[in-house]
Amino acid sequence: MSHLVTIDNVDMRYGGAAGTLAVSGLTMKVGKGEFAAVVGPSGCGKSTLMKLVTGLHIPQSGVVIVADKQVTKPVSIVGMAFQNPTMLPWRTTLDNILLPLEIVERHRHRLRANKKEYVEKAEHLLETVGLKGFGSKFPWQLSGGMQQRANLCRALIHEPELLMLDEPFGALDAFTREELWCVIRDLHAAQGVTIVLVTHDLREATFLADRIFVMSARPGKVLKEHTVPFARPRDLEVMYEKAFNDMVHELHGEIASARVVA
Amino acid sequence: MSVVTGNTAASATPAKSLAQRINWVKLAPWLYTIGLFVLWELLVIVLQTPPTILPAPSRVFQAIVQYWSPIWKNSLQTLYTTTVGFAIAVVAGLAIGLFIGWSKAIYAGLYPLMIGFNAIPKVALVPILVIWFGIGAVPAILTAFLISFFPIVVNVATGLATIEPETEDVLRALGAKKLDIMLKVGIPRSMPYFFGSLKVAITLAFVGSVVSETVASNYGLGNMMSSAQSQFNVPLVFAGLLMLAVEGIAMYALMAWIERRMTGWAHRSTMSQ
Ligand SMILES: Nc1ncnc2c1ncn2[C@@H]1O[C@H](COP(=O)(O)OP(=O)(O)OP(=O)(O)O)[C@@H](O)[C@H]1O
Ligand SMILES: [Mg+2]
Predict the structure, then answer these.
(1) Tens digit of pLDDT for each residue in A223-233?
(2) Which of A214, A230, B32, B80 has its CA 20 to 30 A from that of A47?
């Protein structure tokens, strides 16, 4: 399998030579079309990892390669979604979702002439996440869960090859969260997009991912890599199987001891 | 309060239903204004202050009627210098605010300078403006401009400087340039700050133009009041003050209206949270 993302022995320090060493000796590979999850103690450098892959930060040593190119500036083949939906309140939900198209080089020149086609695509995405008919509403007229759904649409509108999700479901209630897990699962199955998900929720990681990377405490590196054995498509019921719970338990133990070491 | 309504209800039942139909909140500004004038009138009557010290409102209104033609001309003149100065302040303030908010380095470098400049009393600049431009409308316009552009600059720059880092990350990851981020996020985001600052700026602009007219002009309410004062025509001085207050309130209301029209989303979005 070819790798879409390769991180090789990366060190990243914030704030100059005497600053915080966020990650050190970080190495991981994510295959094309794969669903990877990253778990680890708080402050271990997971968000830093996301920023390294998207080119928002450039490491002081080591290399990050995305789609066969070394990352030296932001790579526009990615879509990003954070825990905070960051919708722009002066734009309707639909216009918020179309925002990436006004930025990404490939689309921005086509946008005006092909507006209708793009709007249809956005509305189709809204329907996929269960927000049909909400495009004309402003973000502040939507609930937190609905905003997070719209946020996913925005991350997907420019058909990124790589979707980077940083605790996107952290602030949601359990039921909405499970619903959105299914949305993400189906998107991944239908579009073949590569996904890297950072999460604190071990059940979420186990339910969604093909592979789970466990990180050490700061400075973060990959301690262990798990392959999730459950067959796809996975049903929410899988979470009540013994093998599933054993895996969550094992992950929990690893993170707990990683925290103690720190 | 409850005692008062209880009394009126006991004495006159039909009046109560009328009192209920009136929107007291809407009416309150008018009632308070009238109340102030009545109080002032009574104070003058009781203390028997001579009109050369504190004229009664009735005397001031009389002066307004008597001198209507010069008052009207000078009010228009002051309104003109104020709005021109304010308009320049809006354009320049927006431009400088965007420039300062553009980058952290510019912000850090220029901000102390701006603070220092703002600390200078603008009255002190009027003589310099007179040396440069002579007396008349130009120093008044420039003083109005100088005094009112600072809050606009600060507000616009603040709006730009406080973009959520996550929003910026999402856009930068897509390959957005600084200009894209400014156009798509920074500028729309700073608009509520900008329109909010207009209310402060317009009242300051009146201060600037009147100060300048008082010391260095042959027109305008400031000049009218200072010459009335030298002739001990105190009711006319108060008439000028009243006209200033009316103009100030009118322009403030206009700015508040524009603010609501242009950036309604900002109010509704914070209200919904
Ligand atoms: N902009 C920054 N400047 C300086 N230090 C930073 C910055 N961002 C992160 N750090 C430091 O780098 C370390 C890793 O931060 P990071 O945000 O990657 O952690 P995280 O794993 O995402 O944590 P969490 O699980 O709480 O989100 C932290 O110790 C943090 O203090
Ligand atoms: Mg984080």
Answers:
(1) 999 999 999 88
(2) A230
Instruction: Locate the ligand 1 atom nearest the alpha carbon of residue A51 and give its number.
Output: 18
Q: Give residues 126 to 185 of A whose Cβ lies within 8 Å of B.
A: 138-141, 154, 158, 164
Distance of alpha carbon B115 from alpha carbon B104, whole angstroms: 16
Of A81, A20, A78, nearest to A53 by C-alpha is A78
Q: How far is B172 from chain A (nearest CA, A)?
A: 7
Residues A35, A207: contact at Cβ < 8 Å? no
Quote the CA–CA distance of B144 and B247 in Å, as a whole number: 15
Task: Tell me if B101 sits within 8 A of B159, measured CB to CB.
Answer: yes
Rounded Cα–Cα distance for residues A130 and B235 (Å): 70
Q: How far apart are CA A91 and CA A105, in angstroms?
A: 21
| Whether A140 and B188 lie within 8 Å, measured CB to CB | no
The SS3 of residue B264 is: helix
A42 lines ligand 1 (CB under 6 A): yes
For a ligand 1 pocket test, name from A7, A13, A24, A46 the mutation site with the most ligand atoms within 8 angstroms of its C-beta: A46
User: Which of B180, B266, B272 shows the shortest C-beta gap to A103?
Assistant: B180
Tens of pLDDT, residue by residue over B57-68, are: 999 999 999 999
Which tokens is B264 given? 């309604």
pLDDT for the residue numbered B268: 67
Pairing of strands A222-227, A211-215: antiparallel
- CB atoms B166 and A86 under 8 Å: yes
Pairing mode, if any, of strands A35-39 and A61-66?
A: unpaired
Is the shortest distance between the CB of A47 and ligand 1 below 6 Å?
A: yes
Q: Which amino acid is at B112?
A: P
